[in-house]
Amino acid sequence: MEPSVLLLFALLVGFVLLLVRGYPKARGHLPPGPRPLPLLGNLLQMDRGGFHNSFRRIREKYGDVFTVYLGPRPVVMLYGTEAIREALVDQAEAFSGRAPVAVVKPVFRDYGVIFSNGERWKALRRFSLATMRDFGMGKRSVEERIQEEAQCLVEEFRKSQGAPLDPTFLFQSITANIICSIVFGERFDYKDRQFLRLLNLIYQTFSLSSSFSSQVFEFFASFLKYLPGAHRQIFRNMQEVLNYIGQSVKKHQATLDPSHPRDFIDTYLLRMEKEKSNQHTEFHHENLLISVLSLFFAGTETSSTTLRYGFLLMLKYPHVAEKVQKEIDQVIGSHRLPSLDDRTKMPYTDAVIHEIQRFSDLIPVGVPHKVIKDTLFRGYLLPKNTEVYPILSSALHDPQYFEQPDTFNPDHFLDAKGALKKSEAFMPFSLGKRMCLGEGIARNELFLFFTTILQNFSVSSPVAPKDIDLSPKESGFGTVPPKYQICFLAR
Predict the structure, then answer these.
(1) CA 148, CA 143: separation in Å to the nearest integer?
(2) What is the rounded CA–CA span in Å between residue 212 and residue 476?
(3) Out of 323, 392, 400, 411, which residue is the most buried by the measure of CB atoms under 10 Å away?
(4) pTM above 0.85, yes or no
(5) Is residue 348 a contact partner of residue 324, using CB atoms and an 8 Å limit?
């Protein structure tokens, strides 16, 4: 018998045995959900619209906390503001574990600051927060870096002389340069070929990991990993970025001055040296490479994608852009740079940025969590290591908090007097112990880049506002806005 035929026969026998035995029962007392099929789990309940659309339908039947089987493994879904806050805030420690994302697991392999767990995660997160703070996060220096980068972007837009352009890589360049200045100690020219190559690899990877095929991969990674697919391209892309990071680390090692660390890499190398006699240290080469990859990837793609969606929304709703410009003219004027101190005096602009983040819904199903111990939650017993998806999109579109959740409306964040109104449902950076490391940088970037661009330019589109389609290009792990052309017209 041919080996391939033998393999197929073995798979069929295994499938029949599973059907006969029934689906294995999960330990503990999990929330209800649609009945899974052997091997397939709840695949038949998923549609081409992706995880999020499918979970929304399931929630209508089973409530705010339910279980979905991604292939053979149960995953508990948290739907709505209250359920997510109860888990990630009220029981923050129990829900502080990180579950893997199948398409990137071979790259991150439980190393680095985002996908690690236990003492490794705690040590790396403490170090990363302290080091990023030292190199500008939350200090005046990061504001100055963003202001300088914003002026470089203004000059680049002026060169276009109002001609239509795709803003994807320019928005990537400005956000990447901020995180690069902190991590690598340098910024790059927008025409730098190596830089553009890295940005393209990151953009491709974010798009591929958000595709429908990557969501199917989440069901059957143990089998599909042996076949061609998006996961292989993601691995190749990230290995190329890691190779660049490895070369940068070597340059840092050769030029390191212990009395004057220049950036995140230098500071990590000094910590490695300090702990070299500790056999159990988490400060080793692998954690350095993957932590830098994590910061570079997240620090580039999240803010740049939000800006891309933001300016697409300004094209769709030009009256909003005009109101922002009116507030800019009143508070800042045209002769000085926008500063972070201006934010409290510009409630409408701040509300618009909040609404862009809410509407763009960047990480709709959240980065997966897991419980680190047997956990009682809403009457259910979640066994240790149960995976949990906090569906951030369900909070950002929660009708109890947002009157028109599916409509772009800055009034969602304004009170009756026109002041900025905070909302417990606003959680684009997630919540709890796993909250986004770079929230402070991202918020500063969005305000300063957004206001600087609209201070200097009006925006228009070759497409009429009524014909602009806001539907995402991909919506899976992340939301990828559609490609579009925009004209920056000097004011």
Answers:
(1) 9
(2) 7
(3) 392
(4) yes
(5) yes
Cα(255)–Cα(188) distance, rounded to whole angstroms? Answer: 19
Reference 264, options 146, 144, 128; nearest CA is 128
According to DSSP, residue 441 is labeled H
322 close to 393: Cβ distance less than 8 angstroms:
no
Distances (CA, A) of 27 to 98, 383, 394: 20, 7, 27
CATH code for residues 3-490: 1.10.630.10
Distance CA 49, CA 474 (A): 9
CA distance 249 to 69: 41
- CA–CA separation, 269 vs 252, rounded Å? 8
Parse the chain into domains and list their residue ranges: 3-490
436 among annotated binding-site residues: yes
378 vs 85: CA distance, rounded Å? 12
User: Using CA atoms, how far apart are residues 238 and 31, in angstroms rounded to an integer?
Assistant: 36
C-alpha dihedral, 201 to 204 to 207 to 211, nearest 10°: -120
Residue with tokens 């929660």: 398
Phi and psi, residue 382, nearest 5°: -95, 115
At residue 137, the pLDDT reads: 55
Q: How far apart are CA 82 and CA 95, in angstroms?
A: 15
What is the identity of the amino acid at 153?
Answer: L
Q: Which helix (H) or strand (E) holds 76?
A: strand 73-79
- DSSP codes joined into one string, 117-167: -HHHHHHHHHHHHHHHHHTTTTSHHHHHHHHHHHHHHHHHHHHTTT--B--
**The tokens of 489 are what?**
């017209």
3-30 confidence digits (pLDDT tens): 343 344 434 544 444 444 444 444 579 9
How many Å apart are CA 385 and CA 373, to the nearest integer? 7
Kindly list the distances between the CA atom of residue 445 and the CA atoms of 109, 172, 179, 329, in Å, as whole numbers in the listed order. Answer: 30, 12, 11, 20
Identify the H or E element spanning 301.
helix 285-316
Tally of CB atoms within 10 A around 147: 16
* Percent of the chain predicted with pLDDT > 90: 83
Distance CA 117, CA 99 (A): 9
DSSP annotation of 437 reads T
Q: Which amino acid type is present at position 279?
A: Q
**pLDDT tens column, 96-147:** 999 999 999 999 999 999 999 999 999 999 999 999 888 765 555 889 999 9
Count other Cβ atoms within 10 Å, centred on residue 194: 10
6, 110, 385 from 76: Cα distances, Å: 36, 21, 11
CA distances from 82 to 89, 91, 98, 290, 425 (A): 10, 12, 21, 33, 8
**CB-CB contact of 352 with 316 (8 Å):** no
**Rg for the chain, CA atoms, rounded:** 23
